[in-house]
Design goal:
The protein contains 16 helices and 2 strands. The chain has about 400 residues and is mainly α. It has a two-stranded antiparallel sheet with strand order 1-2. The protein is globular.
Length: about 400
């Protein structure tokens, strides 16, 4: 390896010039989907966030949330997490690090993600994914990272089996709709911390909720594994070379997610009435099909990045947030606590429709993070959470620039 190459790829945080556009663009844009999903849950103190008696515009909003938002945002970040793990390892390899050193860096980073997740859940929001990402990252580093291409094809087999499962559940749901009577709401779980009367009570509730939530989302390792498979082929770094794959993935991934979410969306909107058993099956179908939105959305942004040879202000702003997605994610949780908690401003119940109010707040908060990220980008500064994680991972000499 030449001295020039070693200098360009020195170990430490990834520099802006080394980053691909598509992953950052996807992360920045999809933080809006995360905001919309989480704010609905906070407003209605449940998962998924749902007005069970919608009227007027709330019907259409419920429909849209179930088709495009609920259980359809986190798979994008799961795909990108697996993708990023391979990118980090590849960069460490290129700098001359030994496999042991690479493993050490990745394990340290993922262990700190678990710590971030614990702090995030304890102080701010029960529905944390950082801890689960850290646990999955540790498993991927130890078990999957150094495997060969043949072994990684197992991920594609698992996705094919998941598609069959979705088709079977979908067929059962469709066949049972006609004969289903009653008018049961879609099942949702109450979240105590989101309805707690004071901050201390909410924190104690979250300490009990976070471990169970983390355990329930760990199976998304199947989604992160697909991201790892894609990164090994540089799908997002070289989108033009994988144009056909990206097109098919966008169509099929989003097609499965939208079709699979349709029964729950119609029921959540109050346009379809079914019994409790059918409603439960619809939510199974909704969740199972939602994982396909991950590669679907990512492929869409890969195609957009391929065409954005000279990114405009919108793409640049979204990418700036994507490079600071950890800070943007945590900023949202602070906003929900201040604006929506029962013991703070509780704005969700003050302006008519909680659904409309929550969505307006979600969009506003997301736009604030976009603006702040763009300002930091102009100053060539990383987000505060990224700075902390980089220093904990790489040491105090880690660069804090974006």
């Amino acid at each position: 390896m030449s001295t020039d190459t070693a200098l360009r790829t020195s170990r430490g945080p990834v520099r802006r010039a080394e980053r691909a556009l598509a992953p950052d663009l996807a992360r920045g844009a999809m933080l809006l989907i995360i905001a919309l999903a989480n704010v609905a849950g906070v407003v209605f103190a449940g998962e998924p966030g749902l007005d069970t008696t919608p009227e007027g515009a709330d019907r259409a909003l419920n429909f849209t949330l179930f088709e495009l938002v609920h259980a359809r945002g986190y798979p994008v970040f799961a795909v990108m997490f697996g993708y990023g793990l391979v990118q980090l390892a590849r960069r460490q390899d290129a700098s001359g690090a030994t496999p042991k050193q690479v493993r050490s860096v990745l394990l340290r980073r993922n262990l700190w993600l678990v710590a971030f997740g614990f702090a995030h859940a304890t102080l701010l929001y029960y529905g944390d994914f950082l801890g689960a990402y850290g646990i999955v990252g540790i498993v991927m580093t130890l078990v999957l990272l150094r495997r060969g291409d043949k072994f990684h094809r197992t991920a594609l087999v698992l996705w094919a089996l998941s598609a069959v499962e979705v088709l079977v559940i979908g067929a059962i749901v469709v066949s049972g709709i006609g004969g289903s009577g009653g008018s049961a709401p879609l099942p949702s779980s109450h979240v105590d911390s989101l309805a707690a009367p004071d901050y201390l009570a909410s924190m104690l509730d979250r300490l009990g909720e976070w471990p169970m939530h983390t355990l329930t989302v760990l199976p998304f390792i199947v989604i992160t594994w697909l991201g790892m498979w894609a990164a090994r082929r540089r799908v997002l770094e070289e989108p033009a070379r994988h144009k056909a794959l990206l097109k098919w993935t966008a169509v099929l991934g989003l097609g499965v997610a939208i079709a699979g979410g349709l029964p729950a969306a119609l029921t959540g909107a109050g346009w379809l009435h079914v019994d409790e058993s059918a409603a439960g099956l619809m939510m199974m179908l909704h969740g199972g099909s939602g994982m396909f939105a991950g590669p679907g959305y990512v492929a869409v942004f890969g195609l957009i990045a391929m065409r954005a040879t000279r990114p405009g202000p919108v793409v640049n702003a979204l990418s700036a947030l994507g490079r600071r997605s950890l800070s943007g994610y945590l900023f949202q949780s602070v906003a929900w606590l201040i604006l929506l908690a029962p013991f703070t401003l509780a704005l969700g119940d003050r302006f008519g429709s909680p659904t409309v109010t929550g969505l307006i707040i979600a969009v506003t908060v997301w736009l604030m993070t976009v603006s702040i990220a763009r300002l930091l980008d102009k100053r060539n500064q990383a987000g505060p959470a990224e700075v902390v994680l980089r220093r904990l991972t790489y040491g105090p000499r880690a660069q804090s620039r974006s």
